[in-house]
Amino acid sequence: MYKLLKSDMLSVEAMIGIDPDSDGLARAKSEGIEVTHEGADWLLERADDFDIVFEATTAGVHRSYAPKYEQAGLRAIDLTPAKVGPNVVPVVNIEKAINRPNVNMITCGGQATVPIVAAVNDVADVPYAEIVSTVASKSAGPGTRQNIDEFTKTTSRALEEVGGAAVGKAIMVLNPAEPPIIMRNTVFCALAEGYDEEVVAKSIIDMVEQVQEYVPGYRLKSDPVFDQGPYQTPGGPASARVIALLEVEGAADYFPPYAGNLDIMTAAAARVGEAIADAHAEHTS
Amino acid sequence: MTDFRLTDSTLRDGSHALAHQFTENQVRAVVRGLDAAGVPVIEVSHGDGLGGSSFNYGFSHTDEKLLLKAAVDEATNAKIAVLMLPGIGIKEDLIDAADIGVEVARIATHCTEADISEQHIALAKDLGMETVGFLMMSHMIPPDELLEQAKLMDSYGADCVYVVDSAGAMTIDDARERVGLLKANLESQVGIHAHNNLSLAVANSIVALEEGVDQIDGCTTGLGAGAGNCPTEILVAALERSGVDTGVDPLSVMDVAEEVVRPLAPNQGVIDRDGLLLGYAGVYGSFLLHAKNAAERFGVDSKDILLELGRRRAVGGQEDMIIDVAIELERRAAETQASA
Fold it and tell me: Are residues A159 and A211 in the same domain?
């Protein structure tokens, strides 16, 4: 919500929940936003008043409502792992979001790591990409914790489909340390013969700057590290690998700064909403 | 009826010590020997569990599913077990293991994160496997908090919940309190998985037995992460001398250790400074070889890497943090040199 309130292109008109006593609804109300605890059915009745719905419920809820939103003419940006629409990472394939009734935001780890894989894949052949996403235990809600397989599988697929790796693998680690750790992501890309180290490093660094435009706390902890192989990877032999160590500090709009995982997800979703609004404005002007 | 049940993890935890390079023939030879010696459960997996083969943890020499098939094929009496860490492995890996004939699924989480194991424990039970909950780095939280986490695994349907001393950091009192408290309050069985960094693995296993522990882990020669595990052949010998019925023939298991496993890692059992530091600083044992490699790659001291990992309270699975720490130490050293 706070990300959307900052946007010049989007106007937040309603916050929909199911718990009348929820903190989120109370905060929305104090921002002067219309609130309801009557759930998505309320939205369907009032569908003509809105253009875009950002959904952060559960995969099950989103799957059952997605067709109804479409029928009602609402564009859905899905922050659950429901995978109804195409996977979108704003800096990689925002065009996929335009003119689709439904867009999926993958996972927080996907939003943090797919851009790097795509950056390497732009300038080299990536037979295999692997990511390790470590988040503070406190920033992983019960939904994520119970469905940790959803995270690893959805992210792995996005490394391939959006990042361009032939084979992808995602690992998630929860760290309970106090004070909570800032979200960390490590991206390993296998490099086939014929890559240029400087070009690969530059592509990664440029990509980090692009992501920083909507997630200011997204940063490389060091220059990309190159290791000479050979490696026998699940995607085939590789002569070397490049490692990017990333940290994502949240903007602390609502969640504490260590929860960069939640921040990058909401920031990416807001970015997609703006792109849809922008395309819509061009179309109608 | 023996006084406890032994699980040998040479072919899983020992995989760390060999950088996950076990071959099918080695697996067959170890399983054949342990099975004949009377070891009732033998664990086989990548060191970091099913799906662990990766850049982060090291690629397996041989696909673990081929190794599991070979192990199931060799075992006549022993059950074959697998380890699985939610977040690294996925449910499909458990289904594949069950199809191969694996009879015991051990689901591991960091000691504070038991709730991520609910679906995997339930699935393993549905697949008809005996199921173990494995609370890694159990030294990091007080006994009463460990009990709360163990109760979760118990409630998900685990047949046994393990106190796992992944860092080899537990003193004898640490082990006694944790096992005792779990034994007094769980419906499920209780197990102990000890590492030898402080040279206490056998002692901690024996004290756990005094508290009524139901299952104990060992590895022949101690082959395993960090300074190594509780050495199966030493545990069996010591317990037989104490009048405990282990169900395992001491002389046969000594032969397996000496003739089959010892040649793979002749120096296993030596607790060097890094190995000791893991236990002293409470650092995840599997980090050891990765820290030694990173120390060489970035020209820093492995000792400093391990101590820094301890300060940052890194948990199992965070092998990528080792590179991060090594780079930072390299940078710090360069800055000190520049300012000198």
Answer: yes
